[in-house]
Amino acid sequence: MRIVSYNLRKHAAGHELADIAQTYDVDALCLQECDSEALPHELHHLRLADATRANRLGLAMYVRDERYEVLDTQVFAVNKSLHDRVLAPANERLLAALLRDRDNGERVLVGSFHAAPLTASNSLRRKQIAAAHDGMRSLAPDTPAIMVGDFNYPWFISGLERRLTTAGYTLNRTDEPTYLRYKYFTGYFDFVTSTGFEVQHVDVLPAGASDHRAIRLDAQRVVPDERAA
């Protein structure tokens, strides 16, 4: 499953989406900071699965319609930061979709996630990530799940990784910074968390109109070893 995640910087990079969908042959396109009213229903082979509407920094997801059937979608409001309380509504931070592979019938969960900004603490963001994972699991327990997006977590990533490993999730990130807004401040903001998937590498796409660079990954379901059973 090929996934691209992109923070559009208040929809400034919205005009790039059609080219990204086609150029990188995307199966699922997960967006943050998008304007849901400005999103087309289709992008080449991708169909809009769902988008938030109450959030001023919206989330959206496109899915390859010929391969995946969208069984369910849900938006989750996780733990609020001070930023959320002052600039509400901005607490819808996860859009999750339950998909069924039309070829083999297998179900997968995909989430587009946007954590609270750097004005919040890492502790709060960790709670948001955990709540987002719980929200995805509530749609379909024991289903392979992958969550991508802007985690706003540029420092002390090893501590986050340890907590995720304990919870049964794997953290993957890029080899290059994904945030490029300021000349002297770059960072690794856009991550991938997964359970039941193997992600070999996360690539960074060329910079566009956003202050984030999109990330691309290929996720393969982990097949349980029948001998272990």
Automatic annotation (TrEMBL):
<keyword id="KW-0540">Nuclease</keyword>
<dbReference type="GO" id="GO:0004519">
    <property type="term" value="F:endonuclease activity"/>
</dbReference>
<feature type="domain" description="Endonuclease/exonuclease/phosphatase">
    <location>
        <begin position="5"/>
        <end position="212"/>
    </location>
</feature>
<dbReference type="InterPro" id="IPR005135">
    <property type="entry name" value="Endo/exonuclease/phosphatase"/>
</dbReference>
<protein>
    <submittedName>
        <fullName>Endonuclease/exonuclease/phosphatase family protein</fullName>
    </submittedName>
</protein>
<dbReference type="InterPro" id="IPR036691">
    <property type="entry name" value="Endo/exonu/phosph_ase_sf"/>
</dbReference>
<dbReference type="Pfam" id="PF03372">
    <property type="entry name" value="Exo_endo_phos"/>
</dbReference>
<keyword id="KW-0378">Hydrolase</keyword>
<keyword id="KW-0255">Endonuclease</keyword>
